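Hey everyone, long-time lurker, first post.

I ran two proteins through the pipeline my lab uses and got sequence/structure pairs for each. Pasting them in order. The first:
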Amino acid sequence: MDRRKFIKGAAAGTAAIGAAATHASAQKYAVPIIDTHVHLYDPTRPQGIPWPGPEQAASIYRPFLPAHYAKIAEPYGVVGMIETECSPWIEDNYWVLDVSRNEPIVVGEVGDLLLGHPDYREHLARLHKNPLYVGIRVSNLWGRNVEELLKKPQVWADLKALSDAGLTMDFGGGAREVRQLLQITDRIPNLRIVINHLPGARVPDDAAERAAWQKNTRELAKRPHIYVKFSEIFQRVDERGRRVQTGGRIPKDLAFYKPRLDEIYETFGPNRLMFASDWTNSEPMSTFGELVALDHEYFAPKGHDVMEKVFWKNSLSAYRWKKRRANQPSLA
């Protein structure tokens, strides 16, 4: 989905949501949480930032660093997070590692390197020396066209290098992305892949296109190295429950979203799903507490073992992050 267009509409009327409201209903849950999708940025830097912009989402256009995240998330039992890059600038891969160096709540960074770029291998090797660097995000954002990229032999060589390094690739889960993921996993079956925001992926309106998407998604789910982030669940909808970018309402009850969540759960099973907040991108849609509560309400009836898998264990399999402080869980 185009998160920039989506968040622009979502921000209207919800800018007042903030940390105070989050802390007012803070509740720790029995299972520790590793949040697998958080954005860090600082618009006060001299060079600024490529996202977000004040015209896109005024409520989140502010410095957001690990300490800011910890203040919001730790009251809900979050003990670690993985930063997912929201910038196409190569130097921002290093900036995130720098601001996370002394912040042990950060257990990993999914960076952004352009496949096929002449400097890709050099930066991959340098960044991979830091144990916090766990993978890269590939997308159709920033004017990129993955369909065209996959026509280049160098891109395939770069994907193989990513797999050989034991790093992970984040990607979308829309109809075209799923087709591309089938193509990628056909050729590089050992590459670990994480699908971003599958609950929020736009469902094709055309019945035939939706059926093809569902079929391809089921085929993708058969492949052992595919993981899914349970994020972007909250949506803005009109009076008929159809998704809209402006106006409407944001349902907060699980019943509204459960059919879609059930479809994903039944397709991928409990060993592939991971909690992800998409903070701060999701902030205009809900408080942090509301999104944690919705996930907890959905997964709690499935038992403690499933809860552990979704809230932290599967993230270890997907990203192979390293524990940085005593309260972070480990399989040992």
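...and the second, right after it:
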Amino acid sequence: MTSNIINKRSIFGNTLTYLKSFLLLMKPRVMSLVIFTCAVGLLTSPVSVPYYNSIISIFFVAVGAGAAGALNMWYEADLDKLMTRTCLRPIPTGKLNKNQALIFGIVLSLLSIVGLYYSSNLLSAVILFITISFYVFIYTIWLKRKTPQNIVIGGASGALPPVIGWTIANNNLALEPITLFLIIFFWTPSHFWALSLFKADDYKKANIPMLPLTNGIENTKINILIYSILMLPVVIAPYLIGFVGNIYLISSLLLTFYYIFICYELYSFKKNKFEISQAKKVFSYSILYLFLLFVLFLVDKIF
């Protein structure tokens, strides 16, 4: 009797571990960002969508993001095992194998695209297809191992979810979702290059041509500063086209000026012990910065 209970608990525990591994394969933290930015694109649209349809559509977009994450881990399993940041992912630890990840990613891709088509419209499904394809084929397979500009070009895929949110509601493209796209697109390089400064050893072991390795630390810091400055016209653009009002404009400028300031601080440090801690500060703030910018779109719409 006791042994049966133990066996059942063991089977239940193994099943949970197995399911958790598949969830981790989908990169849940990335999925949460996709869900949030997609929801902002949908909620800031002038066309309202029934609550049920909104939830279902955003769910399929999240599944699509998870599919891209799974296919990314399938292709990069050899790199992931070399890097401290990724060595505990499901494939390097042996909890799942590459074939499982590949099949899982393909099934989720098909499910998300078809599901989004039936829950919203063809345009949204096509853009989701482009998002997944761009992330897997253009960024993961083609660019990441070949050029230090991988994250600049590849960032386009991560910038598309708010556009999908907009098209779910409107079934068309306009200047408003393009400004949302540009915010994420121009934010991405400084965010990931800050990460690459304090994870340079990881990228070196995996032979990934990130900017600090190919162009040097000083050049990377200059590029981070340049992209932080480029955020100024980008965050102003939604105001100029009448998408948002003064609440967004003033608050986003304050957030951006501080971002530029800490990026300048990073640039001003010349190979001392504070450089790494400042890179971590820039990286951490960049996450909060993007989140708050998109919150401001919602706040501005409410008020």
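Reply from user beta_strand_b:
Welcome! Quick read of the second one: Residues 38 and 162 are 4 Å apart (CA to CA). The chain has a mean pLDDT of 92.
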